[in-house]
Structures are given as structure tokens and as C-alpha cells.
């Protein structure tokens, strides 16, 4: 839908490469008319993010590691200098120790629990707090979650706990910011092969299982997530806040294995 984000300015966090969900969302938002700014995490990703930003005529507003609040402040200061205000933020950030994205949840260490929740959940709140000040004409905040927040999934472990907390924070932030016409939503995406996903144990099996059992009998793409995101970022969704929208080929409605599915 060209034009639904015309005149809107948005900050995108979490692009790592051209397979990132953040990149799918950025492409769709740009195609819908938005002006964008990217952050990157560290120098090695800067090299990947700069050419992507260039492709979309987007600004690059600096390094952001969400464990370092001063880097978040620096990014928002740069955005304020660049635009003076902000219409939307896309948060595609998550991390957990790879060694604990396999096996049993009960083995999670306090240190990895804290770090996973800080990066994958609290960071969205830290960003919302800063975005609120720049969203003088209302706005839309969007984060990414996964079905492992709602149901047990193999190997997802502490990340499932973090996503459950993230989904709850979407509701609390929506209530806090609604009076300023700032909407807060999440997309619960089906499995997609990205850098972050490759850290999850048996990821290929999970992807295949979804393909065989989802109502649409396939997985979703970053472009499909991107176009649904463009809707949630745009005035077309102005009556929606606090929502978790599943963009997962329908997998979340399924109650049992498709008997016709082949063995994996
Ligand atoms: P990705 O690896 O492309 O993106 C993850 C991003 O998180 C990277 O850009 C990385 O730099 C950033 N990040 C990690 N730690 C950070 C920190 N301390 N500070 C700043 N940034 C940090 O993978 P993706 O799959 O596109 O992940 C984006 C979001 O989508 C994540 O929240 C993920 O949980 C979610 N998600 C992914 C899937 C999937 O199957 N790929 C499904 C549902 C939800």
C-alpha cells in the first residue's frame, strides 16, 4: 500500500544484515513513504548496515548497544538534532547466550537470565521512554516477539520467558502512552532463518515443523512481516494498541500435528 507512511519519520533498531526482520520492515516502511534512520550494534555490523541504509536513502544515527544506556541517549540526541521529532520506532533486538538456547530451561543462570531480559525486554521500555519525548504528534512503537512466549517450544528457554515479559510490557506501555496517542504493538513472527535464529537449537527442525503444520503450509518471509509492520506503524491501524499480531502463516491457531505432514 504505497503512501500509508508518507511524511512519517521512523527509527529502526536491530538491522544486522539483509536477512534481518528489521530490514524487511525497513524496506516495507520505505516503500510506504517513510523516512528512516538506522542504528547498528558495533563496528562489524556498521559495515553491513551502512550500505543497507544507503539503499533506502536512510540516515545512520550511530552505534546502539542497549546494555549501555548512554549509547541509547546518544542515538536519541542525534535523532532529535536530525528531525526534531519522531513518528515511529521499530525494535528488533534480542539476545541470549547461545549455550542456553539448547537443552533445559531449568539450567538458565542468573547472569544470562538478567542479560537476556535486559536486552530482549527492558530495552523496549528504555526506548519507549526516550521516544515518548520526541513523539509530539502521537506515534507508533513496534517490537518483535515469538510464540515461545505463549507456549513451550524446544530450546527457546529463557528467551520464551523474556518474550512473555516483552508482551506484557507492550500492554503496560500501551496504557501509559495511549493518552499521548502513542500506540504500542508487537508482531509475533513465525520462524525465519536469520542470524539470531541460527543460535536456537534445532532451528531447521522448528522451521520445517511450522511449514508442515501452519494453515498456509509454509513459513513467512521478512517482507511479509515488513508489510504487516507498515500497517501497524501507519494511521491505517490507528485504533489498535497493546496488540500482539501473529504473522506466522496461522501457526498459532493449530492444536495438533497435521496428520498428513511428512516426517522431518
Ligand atoms: P537478527 O540477528 O537479524 O537481529 C537481531 C538484532 O539484535 C541484531 O541486529 C543485533 O545487533 C541486535 N542486538 C542484539 N543484542 C543487542 C544489544 N545488546 N544492543 C543492540 N542491539 C542488539 O535476527 P532477527 O531474527 O531479525 O531478530 C529480530 C527480532 O525478531 C528479535 O527480537 C527476535 O527475537 C525476533 N523474532 C525472530 C524470529 C525468527 O525466527 N527469526 C521469530 C520471531 C521473533
Quick synopsis:
The protein has helices at residues 21-31, 43-55, 69-83, 110-134, 157-177, 203-213, 222-233; strands at 9-13, 35-40, 59-63, 88-91, 139-145, 182-189, 244-247. With 264 residues, the chain is an alpha/beta fold.
Structural features:
264 residues, alpha/beta, Rossmann fold
Secondary structure layout:
Layout: E1 9-13, H1 21-31, E2 35-40, H2 43-55, E3 59-63, H3 69-83, E4 88-91, H4 110-134, E5 139-145, H5 157-177, E6 182-189, H6 203-213, H7 222-233, E7 244-247
Parallel strand pairs: 1-2, 1-4, 2-3, 4-5, 5-6, 6-7
What would your notes on this structure say?
One of its GO terms (molecular function) is enoyl-[acyl-carrier-protein] reductase (NADH) activity. It is an enzyme of class 1 (oxidoreductase). It catalyses: a 2,3-saturated acyl-[ACP] + NAD(+) = a (2E)-enoyl-[ACP] + NADH + H(+). This is Enoyl-[acyl-carrier-protein] reductase [NADH]. InterPro entries: Enoyl-ACP_Rdtase_NADH, NAD(P)-bd_dom_sf, SDR_fam. The chain is an alpha/beta fold and 264 residues long. It has one domain: Rossmann fold (3-Layer(aba) Sandwich). The chain is 41% helix and 15% strand. The chain has seven helices and seven strands; from the N terminus they run βαβαβαβαβαβααβ. A seven-stranded parallel sheet has the order 3-2-1-4-5-6-7, sandwiched between helices. β1, α1 and β2 form a beta-alpha-beta unit. α1 crosses α7 and α3 packs parallel to α4. The longest helix is centred in the middle third of the chain and has 25 residues. The chain is globular and about 55 Å long. The termini are far apart. It binds nicotinamide-adenine-dinucleotide (NAD).
